[in-house]
Design a protein that fits this description.
2 domains, alpha+beta, Lipocalin, single chain, 7 helices, 32% strand
Length: 271
């Protein structure tokens, strides 16, 4: 009888392990972020019933009983990012002295989505004229048509996948004739929280189409500063980047796409 019980328990554990290990296979270009997790003291799991203004009850991803974390100090220090709701995926950095006190709480569910900041084009270098001279020769309507803001950023998805925001479909091949140019769009493929910091990993394929070794893939690392339903801020290096939530990547640059098509039509008419 005991052997039968042990067999049943083992079978149930095997099923649970299979559920936790399921990941999508659609994005083969994303870096294997599990390699990046060595040394991560963050606890991950779901917010459970019993959460309050002073307590987070976390059902850990690795299994086991729910854990109660005291978040009073974290809240007082402004280190609770987002508005955790029951069922939300959370990242909790525990106090190294008191493992049941949270130093930081990040609502991972709220972090998912499209986040952007605005960029403007710059004049291309001209060997014969200064920027001031070029601008002085432009009409107001031309400036308005050329200096269209675009939204750059990233979409943070489930299973630690990410994608870039900022690409605009070119309506014709006359882009090189434009006197302005936009910054290069940074390609992101995955993201993760590591000891409370946000890591966003860049493209895993180089410009020649060769795969970049996993330990050589670039990334941007920032410390959280703010997170709400429609805004996010993080400190990257010495600069605080402020992001606004958009519906999706296409919607983010809907107006810029229209402007690009109008600009292309204008340039076509000149030819």
């Amino acid at each position: 009888m005991k052997n039968l019980v042990f067999l049943l328990i083992g079978f149930i554990l095997l099923l649970l392990t299979g559920c936790y290990n399921q990941v999508p296979t659609g994005n083969n270009s994303a870096i294997d972020v599990e390699v990046q997790l060595k040394g991560d003291s963050t606890r991950y799991g779901l917010a459970c019933d019993g959460c309050s203004d002073s307590i987070i009850v976390l059902l850990p991803n690795e299994g086991g009983d729910p854990i109660k974390f005291d978040i009073v100090t974290a809240k007082r220090n402004g280190m609770v990012y987002g508005d955790p709701q029951i069922g939300d995926a959370l990242a909790i950095v525990p106090n190294p002295i008191d493992s049941f006190e949270a130093v930081m709480v990040i609502d991972l569910e709220q972090m998912k989505g499209t986040w952007t900041f605005q960029v403007l084009p710059k004049l291309k270098p001209n060997p014969t004229k200064t920027d001031e001279e070029i601008l002085a020769e432009m009409s107001d309507s031309m400036k308005k048509a050329l200096f269209i803001p675009r939204e750059y950023g990233f979409t943070l998805k489930s299973y630690n996948q990410a994608s870039p925001v900022g690409y605009i479909m070119k309506a014709n091949s006359l882009e090189d004739e434009s006197p302005v140019e936009y910054p290069k769009v940074t390609v992101y493929t995955s993201w993760h929280i590591f000891n409370g910091r946000l890591y966003i990993y860049k493209d895993t394929i180089d410009e020649q189409g060769h795969r970049i070794p996993q330990d050589s893939v670039g990334f941007d690392s920032g410390s959280m500063r703010y997170l709400s339903a429609d805004s996010m801020a993080a400190l990257f290096g010495k600069k605080v980047m402020q992001y606004h939530r958009k519906k999706n990547a296409l919607e983010a640059n809907k107006e810029a796409q229209k402007a690009e098509e109008q600009k292309s039509t204008t340039m076509d008419n000149k030819h």
